[in-house]
Specification:
Elements: H1 2-8, H2 19-47, H3 52-75, E1 88-90, H4 95-105, H5 107-123, H6 128-131, H7 137-159, H8 171-190, H9 193-197, H10 199-213, H11 220-224, H12 243-270, H13 277-296, E2 302-304, H14 306-315, H15 321-334, H16 337-342, H17 348-373, H18 379-397, H19 416-432
Antiparallel strand pairs: 1-2
């Protein structure tokens, strides 16, 4: 016990570092995750036809909630919080499900499902070790791959200027979209360290500047936005609860928790702290609380961001004070709509170019989990992957396939992610039991989540 307390001290607040340096390190963490944090509300709000005012609020409250979620996790008390230098942001896995739920059952159903999934995580945080067995790498990798692939069409539609846009596929939109994508590729090829970690953010800024030169930037949202706004729960209406939507978000939450386990383990090694099952339970509980808060204040589900773990390792600054500063900065930014409105200046085609890389990374994350942690020489594992990904993509591409089935029976088949996930779970139990078909190199750790920026 004393040894664990001593190890935990390695993540405590430091009083030796100059405040200005701590502040600059906090800004660096904010910049590393900022693009991913604002992209989710931009994508979801755009797909659901939010007004400029609604989108500004969505971005602001999302940044504020990211800060609150981070502080909940960093706090690390006896009830919740992993107590490690970890930052939380929007779960990219939730983008496609939230859009699908919003288009089918309305925005209120999104937040009802988010709240329900957060409560699920909180209630089952203590026994999640057993539930996680249903999501070994062969299942989680398949689900993440499905999620990424279903997002790619969204990115390409935006790259062309937005589905239904009058100038869809115009030379200017294509040049801006592919120009941003090429810029991000070159940044990741030739830049190193911090510049590489914010390549998406730099690409969005460069693309927006280029678009402004051609008169393709609308300054209206920035002019209309105020300098301060009050936070209001249920701003978009009272949440509604639908079985199929709740099941979808619970599956997304379980995948996020499974991936967060890998981030916790990686951070534990970096700061020389042994992570116990009780530590993990507190971490899961904090993540569940963050998800519930996201639903109440009309933001999003939250999960750990692995790029910030990379910053901890790169900077060799392992104390929590830097993350506390970053979380505080996000909260301050969230109260200032003017700052949130800046992100709305980004043209749809520029955003789409960045999204191709971002969503492609979600796909590659799933493939990496399958290739690095699953024994692909076993036919059983290949069969699980083939059928689950095939079912997930099939339902996504042909959504009317099960239209004739009664609505109550369509819960497990009317969404590609749910259909693919259920298929993967059932087939994995059938062929592998609770072993999960892991490779010999697998040591029980889920792969860290890959996020934007």
């Amino acid at each position: 016990m004393e040894q664990q307390n001593h190890q935990a001290d390695t993540t405590q607040f430091s009083g030796k570092r100059h405040p200005l340096k701590t502040f600059s390190l906090g800004i660096q963490h904010v910049l590393a995750m900022y693009a991913g944090a604002v992209l989710v509300p931009l994508i979801v709000g755009g797909a659901l036809d939010f007004t400029t005012e609604q989108l500004t609020y969505l971005i602001s409250i999302d940044l504020l909630a990211c800060g609150v979620a981070t502080l909940l996790q960093v706090w690390g008390n006896r009830f919740f919080g992993i107590g490690l230098p970890v930052m939380l942001g929007c779960a990219f896995q939730a983008v496609s499900p939230m859009i699908a739920i919003g288009l089918k059952d309305g925005v209120s159903a999104i937040y009802g499902a988010i709240i329900a999934s957060g409560i699920f995580v909180v209630l089952f945080s203590g026994i999640f070790g057993k539930l996680i067995k249903l999501f070994p790498p062969v299942v989680t990798g398949s689900v993440v791959t499905i999620i990424g692939v279903t997002l790619i069409p969204v990115a390409l539609n935006d790259l062309g200027g937005g589905q239904g846009a009058e100038d869809f596929g115009s030379p200017l939109n294509l040049c801006l979209g592919f120009g941003v994508l090429i810029f991000i590729i070159l940044m990741n090829r030739f830049a190193t360290g911090f510049l590489r970690s914010i390549s998406v953010l730099i690409g969005l800024i460069a693309g927006t500047v280029a678009a402004a030169i051609f008169g393709h930037v609308d300054l209206g949202p920035l002019k209309e936005a105020g300098w301060f706004h009050a936070v209001k729960p249920f701003n978009f209406g009272t949440p509604t609860f639908h079985a199929s939507s709740i099941l979808t978000m619970i599956l997304v939450a379980i995948v996020s928790v499974a991936e967060s386990t890998g981030v916790f383990m990686a951070l534990g090694k970096i700061v020389d702290k042994d992570i116990s099952s009780k530590d993990l339970a507190r971490g899961y509980r904090a993540e569940g609380l963050a998800i519930v808060l996201g639903g109440i204040f009309n933001s999003f589900p939250y999960t750990t961001y692995s790029q910030n773990v990379g910053l901890v390792q790169m900077s060799r600054v392992k104390t929590r004070d830097v993350i506390v500063v970053a979380g505080g900065l996000l909260i301050v930014i969230g109260f200032v709509p003017k700052i949130a409105a800046l992100t709305q200046l980004v043209p749809t085609s520029v955003l789409g170019g960045a999204m191709v890389a971002l969503f492609g990374m979600v796909v590659s994350s799933g493939i990496r989990m399958l290739g690095g942690q699953v024994d692909l020489n076993r036919f059983e594992n290949l069969f699980v992957i083939a059928c689950s990904v095939g079912m997930g993509l099939g339902v996504s591409v042909v959504p009317d396939l099960f239209k004739a089935i009664p609505e109550d029976l369509r819960i497990l088949v009317d969404n590609g992610i749910v259909a693919g996930s259920v298929t993967a779970i059932v087939l994995n139990l059938m062929f592998n039991g609770f072993k999960g078909g892991a490779s010999s190199a697998e040591k029980g750790e889920a792969a860290p989540n890959e996020h934007a920026a």
